[in-house]
Design a protein that fits this description.
By secondary structure, the chain is of the alpha+beta class. It folds into 3 domains: 102 residues, no CATH class; 137 residues, Jelly Rolls; 75 residues, 3-Layer(bab) Sandwich (Phage tail protein beta-alpha-beta fold). It is built from 10 helices and 18 strands. The strands form 3 sheets. Strands 1, 2, 3, 4, 5, 6, 7, 8, 9, 10, 11, 12 and 13 form a 13-stranded mixed β-sheet that branches. It has a 3-stranded mixed β-sheet with strand order 15-18-17. A hairpin with a 4-residue loop joins strand 6 and strand 7. Helix 1 crosses helix 3.
Length: 330
């Protein structure tokens, strides 16, 4: 992507001189989430440089209909006629329509900011209220763009993250919501939330949090204490375990994987979540074998080599497939 060309094209849109191909180019540019952040940065920069825009209506109209403008002369510009105003109203209506359509299509990007991580990537964030977040691989955190901490502190998480929430003088609650309708409410504490296709899990390090499943109305809110781990079923039921090792659940921050008699089939699921690889287990007896211990791996190949050494299995990489595929066999 040539950022300079896109920036010039976006500025042309702000100034009302973008052509139809340029507008199409901008819509393609905005279809990529990362580019939406650039768009708003350029908009803010342009607004600061142009605090007041005085429209030159006749040249704008001629540019709009594709006609050339006569060479500049020193003859005073005649006063606006009804036809001039008609042209101006038409241009204003077109611009208003474009703004409405853009606002509708990108309303979520306008109101929210998304932080994402790729497979195998970790990312540390500091939110507007001072709270800190560490995002695990293949995760997305959605945060309100305006007045975060003043009016609300609600975020949405898909994936896995550790939160260190700052307590505010106004006692504003911090709420994490997940795709499976789990709601985690806190004031100031440290905890981890896991939310993927296999289900959700909350691990509390410090303070206290309240969990509530909006999917199952029969499930009462649950308040947990440090060392507690809560797993959420697909039906929304909450299962509480006390006195768990928080460090074992937080190892991903250092690229550590901790297992305790974990079946190979579940390990394969975790590798898919973290690295985006597909694991084919050739033998049903192999899928039931278990693995225990803590292992450091920053790539799928690193971990698969460990599995090969410990379990005595062969790892056969696929060829030309997406996602990257590996077969485990004896």
């Amino acid at each position: 992507m040539n950022e300079t060309i896109y920036k010039q094209t976006v500025r042309a849109l702000f100034e009302g001189r973008a052509t139809a191909p340029q507008k199409s180019m901008i819509l393609d540019f905005l279809s990529v989430p990362e580019n939406q952040e650039l768009y708003f940065l350029w908009l803010e920069e342009w607004e600061l440089q142009n605090p007041q825009i005085i429209a030159d209506t006749d040249p704008a109209y001629f540019r709009l209909i594709g006609k050339s403008i006569a060479p500049e002369s020193h003859t005073p510009t005649p006063p606006a006629t009804p036809r001039n105003w008609f042209w101006l109203m038409g241009i204003a209506a077109s611009v208003t329509f474009l703004l409405v359509v853009t606002g509708y299509l990108f309303r979520d990007s306008i109101l929210h900011k998304k932080y994402t991580t790729a497979y195998g990537e970790l990312k540390s964030l500091v939110l507007q209220d001072g709270s800190r977040v560490v995002l695990n691989a293949n995760s997305t955190l959605t945060v309100p763009r305006f007045d975060f901490g003043k009016k609300s502190r609600e975020v949405q998480l898909s994936g896995e993250a550790e939160f260190s929430v700052t307590h505010l003088p106004n006692n504003r609650r911090f709420i994490v919501r997940t795709p499976d309708q789990l709601e985690v409410q806190v004031l100031g504490t440290e905890f981890m939330v896991y939310s993927r296709a296999r289900g959700s899990k909350v691990v509390l390090n410090k303070g206290s949090v309240q969990l509530r499943s909006l999917k199952n109305k029969d499930t009462k809110p649950l308040v947990i204490s440090p060392g507690d781990v809560v797993t959420v079923s697909k039906q929304g039921s909450l299962t509480l375990s006390h006195n768990q090792s928080v460090a074992a659940h937080a190892g991903w921050k250092d690229h550590h994987f901790t297992f305790q008699d974990t079946p190979v089939s579940q390990i394969a699921d975790q590798l898919n979540e973290t690295f985006g690889v597909r694991i084919i287990i050739a033998d049903s007896s192999l899928s039931k074998r278990t693995l225990g211990g803590t292992f450091k791996a920053e790539t799928a190949d690193d971990f698969l080599q460990v599995m090969s050494d410990i379990l005595g299995v062969r790892i056969i990489p696929g060829t030309g497939k997406t996602p990257e595929t590996y077969t485990l066999t004896y």
